[in-house]
Structures are given as C-alpha cells and as structure tokens.
Amino acid sequence: MTSVLSRTLSVAPLAAARAGARVAAPRAPIFRPAVSLKFAARALGSPAPNFEAETTHGPIDFHEFIGDSWTILFSHPADFTPVCTTELGAFAQLEEEFEKRNTKLIGLSANGLDSHEKWIQDIEEVATNGGRVGFPIIADPERKIAFLYDMVDHQDLTNIDTKGVAFTIRAVFIIDPNKKIRLTMLYPASTGRNTAEVLRVLDSLQTGDKAGVTTPINWVPGQDVIVPPSVSDEAAAAKFGEFMAVKPYLRFTKYPTELLKE
Ligand code: BEZ
After folding, report:
1. Is the N or C terminus of the chain more exposed, i.e. has fewer CB atoms within 10 Å?
2. Known catalytic residue: 84?
3. What's the CA-to-centroid distance between 161 and ligand 1, angstroms?
C-alpha cells in the first residue's frame, strides 16, 4: 500500500484576502504521493525504516547509528522557533540520563545544516544549567525522513514554510536495539513535550523487557509493577516471590531490582 502523502498548500488566497479581495472559501489541501512507502512505517513493533542523512555530527546511516543502543528519534517543526528552542535545551540537559539507559538521542527538523549549527548556539545560550547539545540533529530540508516516518503536520495548516510545504510536528520515536519502533508520541507544533515523560516511558519499556512486568498509570522507577495476566500465580511466586492480588487479573509486585541487573 502506498499512502504516505505530501500536500501543497496554496498561500495566494491568504495574500488576496489581506489585500481586501473577496476570495472563495479555502479548499481542502491537496494531497499527493511524495514517496512510496508502507503506511505501517510507524506502527508499534514495526521495523524502524533505515535512511541515510546529513547531521550536525556528519553523515549517518541510521541503523549503524543505532547500533546496539536504544534510540530516541525526535522531530520538531523548525529551527529558531520558541517552543523548539526550549525543547532542545531540555533534551540536552537530560543527555546523561539517556546515556545511563544506553540510549542515543537524535533530533530532526526540516532545515539545513548551516541553520542547525547556528541555532545550536542559541539553544546552548538559553538552556538552563548550561545544557550542551551533544547529540546530532538531522538536516531534512526536503522532508525525506519526515515523510518516511510520517512526521509531517496533517492538522495545522499554518504550520508551513514559505513555499507552503508542511513542517514537521513534534514526534518522538523510541527504537530498541533490535531496531523496532517501541513507542511513538505525536504533539502539535503549539505544545512542547515533557522530557520527564520521555524518560519515564523509556524506563517502563526497559523494565518490561528485562523483568517481564508491566507498569501502571503514572508509574516511575522504584514503584510497584504489575505481574502480567499471562503469568500464572505459581510462576509469579517463583519469579517475583511475593505479590499482591487486588483482583485475580491485577497483581502487583515490588520493583524488580534484582531482575533489572545486567
Ligand atoms: C515553536 O517552536 O514555537 C513553533 C514552531 C512552529 C510552529 C509553531 C510554534
């Protein structure tokens, strides 16, 4: 199925309206295929598509970049914009935390390398606690990767560049060392993300993989975890020792410190 789409937005009617002319009601944006892809590109559990790209750390092959690490690929609408500047500064400040979790960060926006390099200076200037952008930022001015990962805005028709082409939204992809997409978050351009939440869901995924548990609402590391219904009471007792059954299908056990050791 080929269904990743690009759109062309006409900006001429806006200019005419500003000049006082009567203009027809705006027509729906025109969608037309840009690249041929499987629509399931960003389904959870699907392979993270590979690509080659220019970044602020030089050219990369994405799968080689991932290597044996977890990776967080995150996009933002544009360089030199206010919300994005706060977000990049916040990710930069948490880089050590991601490193402790064997996780690489890589940003992306639809701007070129020169723009990224200059913008990084601004980010570092305004970031609290002297955050340094140690991770690469992909230059994707043609939206090749943005379309590959379906990071392009289908919603906010004002989120376009001077040629009327849609900018990227605030997407987050958590990709595991097997190069599978494990989590996605999609935020509109108007709303900055929460880096603590990105770290929290990474902790949940890694805890689940290592200890075979799931995590309840608002869980943070250290709190009790859930024994999945697929594990019998006998198997739960053997694996976790004590557990507490609130309902036969809702059983909690202590944070599995021992199971999380490498
Ligand atoms: C921002 O980062 O502030 C922003 C960027 C694009 C559209 C809207 C807001």
Report:
1. C
2. yes
3. 11
User: How far, in Å, are 171, 188, 226 from residue 238 at the CA level?
Assistant: 40, 45, 15
CA distances from 133 to 111, 119, 146 (A): 17, 11, 21
12-205: CATH, from 3.40.50.300, 3.30.470.10, 3.40.50.2300, 3.40.30.10: 3.40.30.10
Does ligand 1 come within 6 angstroms of the Cβ of 77? yes
* CA 168 / ligand 1 centre spacing (Å): 10
| CA dist., res. 200 & res. 197, Å (int) | 5
Provide the residue ranges of all domains of the chain, joining segments of one domain with +.
12-205, 212-261
Catalytic residue among 37, 84, 120, 202: 84
Give, using CA atoms, the residue closest to atom 8 of ligand 1: 189
Comparing 34-48, 74-88, 237-251, the range with the smallest average pLDDT is 34-48
Q: At 224, is the pLDDT very low, low, confident or very high (cuts 50, 70, 90)?
A: very high
Q: Are strands 103-109 and 70-75 parallel, antiparallel or unpaired?
A: parallel
107-128 confidence digits (pLDDT tens)? 999 999 999 999 999 999 988 7
For ligand 1, pick from 152, 159, 161 the residue to mutate: most ligand atoms within 8 Å of CB. Answer: 159
Range with lowest mean pLDDT among 1-5, 85-89, 129-133, 205-209: 1-5
* Entry pTM: 0.83
* Ligand 1 site, residue 6, Cβ cutoff 6 A: no
Atom of ligand 1 nearest to the CA of 86: 2
What burial class does residue 177 get, using C-beta atoms within 10 Å of its C-beta: 0-12 exposed, 13-18 middle, 19+ buried? Answer: middle
**Digit-coded pLDDT (tens) for 2-27:** 333 333 333 333 343 344 444 444 45
